[in-house]
Amino acid sequence: MVLRLKLIMQFVAWLHSSRKRFLFLTNSSDKTPDELQRKLARLGVVVDASHFYTSAQATAAFLASQRPSGSVYVIGDPGLHQALYSAGYVMNDVNPDYVVVGETPSYSYEKIEHAVHLVLNGAKLIGTNCDKTDPSPDYPGEVIPAAGSLITPIEKAAGVNAYFVGKPNPLMMRSAVTALGSKRLHTVIIGDRMDTDILGGLEAGIDSALVLTGVTTLKDMHQFSYVPRYIIRGISDLLQ
Q: What is the mean pLDDT of residues 18-29?
């Protein structure tokens, strides 16, 4: 853990010294960029909050492009609420344009029931991301339900398919490139998951680099019918 944090600190320092524009992309929608910035700062990695881009922000940008100044019923945490407010959306639990579901421990039958009612009466169903699980913060090696699992009962009961904005949807990748003020040909996506990071980059037409220090290993590669542009052992390879 200490070695990995040291490498991350060195990598961030290299990004700054090389004048690279960069974003940390995360499918998590529960925390705001400020909260993510403080979390990394406690670990000794100092970056500005502007370097974080969450599925909540991508979802808010998508909704604002579809229906500016709309309304939404949210099953999610402060990170999602803040992103939607910042995009000009208002909360509405009577007749919203959209029902949006993200990660949250504040999940109940009553919220599911109400969401189904709203969708059956015309609201569009949106998921911040399609991840079924997230790592458990309390039990190492175990998982907890993520947005993709939390939205499933609403889909089943209402008889609709949700639209998911986060990775691997290339929409989030393109949105991040726009936020960077960059171009696809001048951008690379570095990630450890073939099914989100690499797939999203492929479908967005952006070069990708698979890091073998996370979820996907070389042995896992045969499971996928696509490959990344680059494969690296770790971010230390980039520093060299």
A: 93
